[in-house]
Automatic annotation (TrEMBL):
It is found in: Cell envelope. It comes from Aquisphaera giovannonii. Residues 109-255 form the Multidrug resistance protein MdtA-like barrel-sandwich hybrid domain. The gene is macA_10. Residues 156-231 form the Multidrug resistance protein MdtA-like alpha-helical hairpin domain. SUPFAM superfamilies: HlyD-like secretion proteins. Residues 1-30 have a biased composition (Basic and acidic residues). This is Macrolide export protein MacA. One of its GO terms (cellular component) is macrolide transmembrane transporter complex. Residues 1-37 are annotated as: Disordered. PANTHER family: MULTIDRUG RESISTANCE PROTEIN MDTA, SLR1207 PROTEIN.
Amino acid sequence: MASSLRDELASLKIERPGRSPVERPRRGPREPSLGAEYRRRGGGALRLLSWALWLIPLGIIGGAGFYGYKQYDQIRAKPEVTVGLVQKMTTGEAEKLLTAKGYLKSQKQAMIGTKVAGRVDQMLVKEHDHVEGGALLAVIEHHDLDAMIEQREASLERARAELEEAKAEGWQKEREEQRAERLLSKHMVPQEDFDKAKASNAMTQAKIKGLGASIRVMEANIKEMKSTLRYQMEIRAPFSGTVVEKQGEVGEIISPMAMSSSLGRSAVVTIADLQHMDVETDISENLMSRIELGQPAEVSVSANPSRRYQGRLRQIIPMGDRTRGTVKVKVEITDPDDKLFPELAATVHFLPFKAGEQSEANKSFVFVSKSAVFQENGHDYVWVVDRKSRVARRPVEVATTREDLARVETGLEPGENVVLNPTKALKDNEAVRIAE
């Protein structure tokens, strides 16, 4: 039955009108029509558009993948390291037991004024002048005092002349008493004449003593006025030093009770002994065990950063500050120069006692924490951290090591960061996370 159905299907044919069922069209070479050409070109554009549509999601997926990788790279676990700074300092700074900041003070410094109010008549000094003890700095007007001294001296001359006259009279009265005494002994004059001559002589001698006392009083008054002229009207330096400030000018009123410029000035100049300078600083109470009197120190002054000064702990003030928990100390500078002035900011590095050793005060070296240096195959290395928080191993040449610092001759520059206590797992160009 199946074979008969297959035969029937094979015998079926489609007859088209006007064409014999047995005729087959004879086709020559097929020429493409305009519609076919348009469909061919349109198909290529559709294929390009299809590719473009596929590229858009692929680009989005690729960008998302790159962004995700960057985020993962940021949040993935990185080695945490502690870094230290490479510093350039002197050996004294490297040896320091304690560092404190303070200000320069002169051991002798004074504002020089007058005991009485007056107007400045002469100014004989200016800033930076060096003056010796007792040198005249300024003169206060004293014309009235000069006139009084001249009057007292004239009165003194008159009193001296009166004294000479009294002495001459006294000599005469003494002779008269002696003559009356001789005549009385011979009973040539009565007793009353002798008594009269004796009394007259005694009065004359008393007058002489009174005139002598008056002269001494006048001399003392004149000496007092001259002392007033010297020590009140003439302002002098109480000690040798340098004029660091000139407050008064010619014509200004100087008053010891002046509280403001409208009432006048209270001082003419300020003098300081710049050859004996101290650094006044405060030390915390819990660090006082690190210092003691006579301890050497190294002083750096902000106004002269290229110089390091030697010093010693001269004084510990025996009074604490309960509000700040500090004690004031004074460090004497043993080698001052002309660049040190009062009130300049200074830093003191307290050094350990060392017999016969002097710190290289003005020579600086590169120092790094000793915990940053490690050895491999007999050579010294450090891990340097760059600005992108990536580490690189770098060979260094270590000259000397101290308790916690190593002096580096080559391989490092001041300001670079190095890894402290590095682990063996670090790798070159590896990103790290810096511990806070």
